[in-house]
Amino acid sequence: MGFYEDRVLPRAIDLMLGNKAMGKLRDRALAGLWGDVVEIGFGSGTNIGHYPAAVTKIVAVDPSGGGRRIAEKRIAASSIPIDFVGLNGESLPLDDNSVDNALSTWTLCTIPNVEVALAEIRRVVRPGGGLWFIEHGISPNADVVRRQYRFEPLQKRIAGGCHLTRQHEHLLTDAGFELELISQFDIAGPKISSHMFSGIARV
């Protein structure tokens, strides 16, 4: 991992996704989350402070040492235990049915083999649990979609492999999840990255 990926990008992501507006979206997306949770893409710990009281433990997965360094103060202040267990959402070092639920916030867009990662989540989450998520993805506006496909190669280079055109509801149902709740909405910002998908997908 080079200087940009280790030092620059984690701070940029922390600034973009760690503000008050995004915090309100996190509060809404994490509502109802409970138990021992594997968080795919823990990053700089921007979900700390937004976990519901019913969350008992976070099992964190993230490849970024830079993000973890930024997260140190947040982790130290957290009342919820946080254990780092792996670097790659495509290969979770966890036993089958070993966590109650999973969490992904603006992470599924960056995983190269997202279908493999979703299969891993289904493997480690106990029956009755689910994946709480908020992600950006493909727009319902055809003009925006054309721009998304045009800019996606550049986005992947400068934003840690981030895809602009993932269709999260299809990815989740194709992976065998049952969508208990999903909402789509737009937030302020560039239209190519402002269409959100949020919800709960049951295993």
Question: Quick summary of this structure?
Answer:
The chain is an alpha/beta fold. Helix content is 36%, strand content 23%. 38% of the residues are buried.
Question: What layout of secondary structure does this protein have?
Answer:
Blueprint: H1 3-17, H2 20-30, E1 35-40, E2 55-61, H3 65-77, E3 82-86, E4 101-105, H4 114-124, E5 130-136, H5 142-158, H6 168-174, E6 178-186, E7 195-202
Parallel strand pairs: 1-2, 1-4, 2-3, 4-5
Antiparallel strand pairs: 5-7, 6-7
Helix pairs in contact: 1-3
Give structural attributes.
alpha/beta; 36% helix
Characterise this structure:
The model has no long low-confidence stretch (mean pLDDT 97). A seven-stranded mixed sheet has the order 3-2-1-4-5-7-6, sandwiched between helices. The protein starts with a helix and ends with a strand. The relative contact order is 0.15. Helices cover 36% and strands 23% of the residues. Helix 4 (114-124) links the parallel strand 4 (101-105) and strand 5 (130-136). The protein has 203 residues and is of the alpha/beta class. It contains six helices and seven strands; from the N terminus they run H-H-E-E-H-E-E-H-E-H-H-E-E. The longest helix is centred in the C-terminal third of the chain and has 17 residues, at 142-158.
Strand order of the largest sheet: 3-2-1-4-5-7-6
Q: What letter string, H or E per element, gives the SSE order? A: HHEEHEEHEHHEE
Major beta sheet summary: 7 strands, mixed
Count of helical segments? 6
Count every beta strand, where a strand is a DSSP E run of 2 or more residues. 7
Low-confidence stretches: none
The helix content is 25-40%
Average pLDDT works out at 97
What is the strand content?
15-25%
Structural class: alpha/beta
CA gyration radius, whole angstroms: 16 Å
Shape, per Cα inertia axes: globular
End-to-end separation: 33 Å
